[in-house]
């Protein structure tokens, strides 16, 4: 049996990743990410720079209480200052105070930086590098050196760049990680420079790339193919400017395509989960087209492709999506053929019972609706409901009676607010009238509808809208034009999309809202909660009871947004 060559995976999401302009992680977020990375099988987790801010220093205290099964926590810092003994350097002391068994220090290897940024003699920098490593190695188990700007330095002054890594090698460093700090190098340069460094030192090498030329992952792979045994990067490629090399893609490529061992085979399926958690805690919408783990990474649209993957998935997929925790998705569109419909009906568990006539009916209906301007790409849930309705399999959870929406603006300098009144007939035949205020008409309608349905279906409490998109269908009719509304909803464990279409934006939104709720009720097969007494009373009142309405005619206001309440 051939044993796969081990590549050490070094994550710097919590340090370099936090340099992203829109990312700020609290300590609790960092601890959760560290646990997730440990579970994925990451070897090193760089916790932060204890010398740079109190939050990073606090992380090292807190992480000691977390039981990690595999990963080693690393404290980051820079080499000692010029003219100060290593033992007296404040930054190095702070690294030691983090009480980790491993540290990573960054130092200069590009003569331009030594001359113009540090403004010290080239020889003095070599002493700094040597001393720093020597001192840290006396106090720590493992020391990694990040050779800042190594590829740029090597391109312009190869002798000096090599002398720098030889200085740290002589001091006993454990790994020298070559950095493309400005992200400007391409894979051929990375490969050649890596080979030159390989020939110059005996120490294991690592690779740390930034994505300014959009090739950070390719550069990292080139580094490994030319001798690097450690890869540094961040989850989802978070990082300053265009980001760092994306560890998700690096791990998937090295392990699935090139046969290296990065993380245990049993854990690689948690890549998508890890990617999602980091997005969620960083408060960034996941990138749909992200390789391997994005929602669109295995989404098939063309009918030809769909019939292909039904025969053999390898026809249009580079890997099995399940290996990295992702799913195959088949989209519906005017390109759809019978194959897409069949695939969908099977996915929804209807396939076996459908006759060819029924499939043709569905296909015709789909084409008719698409002709009107509906699109079911990204609105799978509406399509599933459409099929169920067309086939007579849909259950009625409630029925619509009426809605009204008011928009008010009271002062020029104050935002308008909306109020919605909704009347529905519940599964017990009882009419419910609710009202709600929102920061816009759709928000108000959503709140009013939800408060009417919650007594019957408490599980709707967990559901929320995560995205709302309006597209004007350009048919040249100006403000009469039809609009298409796409809504994305989630209940925490599942996310689904619904669509509505009308020349009235509120009506289009309402259709998408209703589908969104109907889908949740259908999918979870939720049975209504019906109070016996209420049912009897409502029978007596002949369906005229109200919920949330007061005798004096002033209805209860439900506002999900405190800031949306009017200030008279
Ligand atoms: Zn970096």
Number of strands: 17
Distance between the termini: 77 Å
What's the Cα radius of gyration?
30 Å
Q: How would you sum up the major sheet? A: 8 strands, parallel, barrel
Kindly name the structural category: alpha/beta
- Detail the poorly predicted runs: 534-568
Which ligands occur here?
zinc ion
- Describe the strand arrangement of the main beta sheet, using strand numbers: 1-2-3-4-5-6-7-8
Give your account of this protein's structure:
With 568 residues, the chain is of the alpha/beta class. The chain is 38% helix and 18% strand. The chain has 18 helices and 17 strands. The protein has helices at 27-40, 54-63, 90-97, 111-118, 122-139, 150-156, 158-170, 187-200, 216-225, 247-257, 271-282, 303-311, 338-347, 356-372, 380-390, 441-453, 505-523, 532-540, and strands at 8-11, 44-48, 72-78, 102-108, 142-148, 175-180, 205-209, 230-233, 299-300, 329-330, 399-408, 417-425, 431-438, 464-472, 483-490, 495-502, 557-559. The strands form four sheets. It has an eight-stranded parallel barrel with strand order 1-2-3-4-5-6-7-8, surrounded by ten helices. The protein has a four-stranded mixed β-sheet with strand order 11-12-13-17. Helix 1 crosses helix 2 (54-63), helix 8 packs parallel to helix 9 and helix 16 (441-453) packs parallel to helix 17 (505-523). The longest helix has 19 residues, at 505-523. It starts with 7 loop residues before the first strand and ends in a 9-residue tail after the last strand. Mean pLDDT is 87; it is low at 534-568. Residues 16, 181, 208, 210, 244 line the site of zinc ion.
